[in-house]
Amino acid sequence: MAYKHFNRSLLFKVTLLVINSMVLGFCLGWYRRPELIVLLAIFEITFIARLIILFNHTNRQINFFIQAVKNEDTSLLFPRNTGNSTINELHKSLNELNQIIQQSRIKNQLKEQYFSEILHNIGTSVIVFNNKGFVINTNQAALSLFGLQTFTHLSQLDKVDAHFKTELFRFNNQQSQSLLLRRFNENLQLSVRCTILNLKDEEVKLVTLQDIRGELERKELDSWVKLIKVLNHEIMNSLVPVTSIAQSLKEIWKAKEGTHEDDNAREMDVIRTIKGLDVIEERGEALMRFVESYRLFTRMPDLHLSEISMQALFDRLSILVSPMKEQYGVSIQFYTPEPDFLVKLDEQLMVQVIINLVKNSAESISGDNKGLIEICCSKNETGQKTEITVADNGPGIPPEIADEIFVPFFTTKTTGSGIGLSYSRQILRAHGGTINCYSKPGNTVFTVKW
Q1: Top-level CATH class of 122-211?
Q2: Could you give the 3-state DSSP secondary structure of residue 372?
Q3: Is the predicted pLDDT of residue 422 greater than 70, yes or no?
Q4: Residues 81-104: pLDDT tens digits?
Q5: Beta strands in 168-305, from DSSP E residues, in sequence order
Q6: What fold does the segment set 216-298 form as a domain?
Q7: Which terminus of the chain has fewer Cβ atoms in its 10 Å neighbourhood, N or C?
């Protein structure tokens, strides 16, 4: 039975105190012997003092234990052998309770560490902030999203997007919405969800943010791929027999050409028919070549990845685009990354992307003797992704078509096919990256990141 010594000791002391009090009262009333009364009074005082000492010691020990718990001191250990079985039981119980609290605290710390690791390693950005805008907790994904080293207050978002902080404050509990984040030279489409929590006496908002731009691009591209496959199937089914028939008729009439079976009018009809069939054949073959060029867009590129030196890649690109300098009359400047670093990529496909971007820039500033194209390479803020930028000082892309330049078939060139930028985005998607454009008069920048 718990505290059996304490209960017995207390019962024994109280019983002795009651008996001694009764005897002392009897002696005071009936058996008046001073020496006995003094002795009984001393016993009475001693019993009361021992009870007070016992309770005071117990209270001090319990108070000491409570203060240690408040200060999160779990190293406290009470001695088990004090010479007093009652105190020994109290110390044993306090030590057991302290051990239970210590184990519970360790479990909570492990859980906190476990969830903290999950928070900082998930790809979804998480922000916890109070009504005053102070950030209580966040993760690495959020820091990378906003390009921040530290994140302590929502006002820091003003450097990225002045309107985004206001939008976050407006969120209500369980509200989800799509928001646009204007970050540096690119626009990000974010899926944002808010949950309001009560931490002690403080109300906080837990906001999760996820970049859905890639998902939107994927759905957009998948839709175009399906459309192209349908067009390809229907057009080819029509063109193949037309071309075949035109070739057959041409051979038949060629065999009759030069014969004297018909009159001159017949001969002229044969000539005109042959010429017409020549045109049909020519246009049919041209249309098939046209459709064939779009088949490229319907196939996701097969990557052959390898570790490539970025300095070596820039040296190769500089040689490949050098003819464009004279062809378009522009200056092309490569800034080789210092120091050099290796990146895993498909060199042939990435070279195709950069050359296409340089060519587009060269065509936009063709003939301008002050035209300049600059190509740079660097690691991003976190050092985990590689960025290549192609910038020119041309007239820029008109705002009304800025959102359409990556749409398949869209082109402003008279001879363009409209799949260059779309296919470049396909290549970057295969690399797990993105391609974005920022443009204003005098400064157009394409950013390739993977």
Answers
A1: alpha beta
A2: strand
A3: yes
A4: 766 666 677 777 777 777 777 778
A5: 176-183, 186-199, 202-211
A6: Methane Monooxygenase Hydroxylase; Chain G, domain 1 (1.20.58)
A7: N
| Sole residue written with tokens 């041309």 | 394
Identity of residue 304? H
Place of tokens 């012997």: 33
Task: Name, in order, each residue with C-beta under 8 angstroms of 339's C-beta and a sequence gap of 6 or more.
Answer: none
pLDDT of the residue at 43: 76
Domains 216-298 and 306-449 share a fold: no
**Residues 273, 245: Cα–Cα separation, whole Å:** 13
CA distance 204 to 130: 4
Bridge partners, residue 444, by sequence = 392, 439
> Which residues are CB-neighbours of 13 under 8 A, at least 6 positions away?
47, 50, 51, 54
The two three-digit tokens of residue 221, written as one number: 């591209």
Q: Which two tokens stand for residue 378?
A: 């660097």
Note the pLDDT tens digit of each residue in 246-258. Answer: 676 667 666 666 6
Query: By C-alpha distance, which of 348, 356, 229 is closest to 298?
Result: 229
Instruction: Tell me how far apart the alpha carbons of residues 303 and 305 are, in angstroms, rounded to a whole number.
Output: 6
Cβ contacts of residue 363 below 8 Å, gap of 6+?
328, 413
Whether 325 contacts 332, CB under 8 Å: yes
Which helix (DSSP H) or strand (DSSP E) does residue 110 occupy?
helix 85-121
Specify the CATH class of 306-449 in words. Answer: alpha beta
> Domain limits of the chain?
4-110, 122-211, 216-298, 306-449
> Among the ranges 70-74, 209-213, 243-247, 390-394, which has the highest mean pLDDT value?
390-394
